[in-house]
Amino acid sequence: MGLSKTTLFLERIVAAASPAFDRVIAVQRHGMQPLSIQTIFEEDHDHEAPVFGVVRALQHCAGRCMVLATDYPLITTALLLDLRSRFEASGTPLFMPIWRGTPQPLCAGHAADLLPILQRRIGEGKLDLRGLLDEVPAATIEVGGNELLNVNTPAEMAEAERLV
Fold first, then answer.
1. Average pLDDT over residues 72-78
2. How confident is the model at residue 48 (pLDDT cuts 50, 70, 90)?
């Protein structure tokens, strides 16, 4: 896409998330530079997968937290408040919205109870986060609208810009 998604969308994400959460903290890969907000870093690892950022977030929070990637430039405070409320009410270690039939583990509630499971899965080479839905008690909710449009390609970026 020419620029990192963090460079493109971090300000939007922070603006939407700040009213919805007590703290907004960025997780960066090992060796990267700190961002404009409080930043924690993944441990050094050989693979590239979001699971390492989720593990680091859970280690840092030592409880329950919402994980939100910078891939969602259309995310709104209203949706985040709703997801937070539902996660808190669910009591489950995993709360994951489903958008257009696809689970969204990077806009989801995760509990620190998941750490040993995530670490085991990493050891087994299972780096996907959606697989957690088959292994742990989870609550899901179908989400409509465009707030969870995930931008990874120039075509998806064009679609997001058209929808703004």
1. 96
2. confident
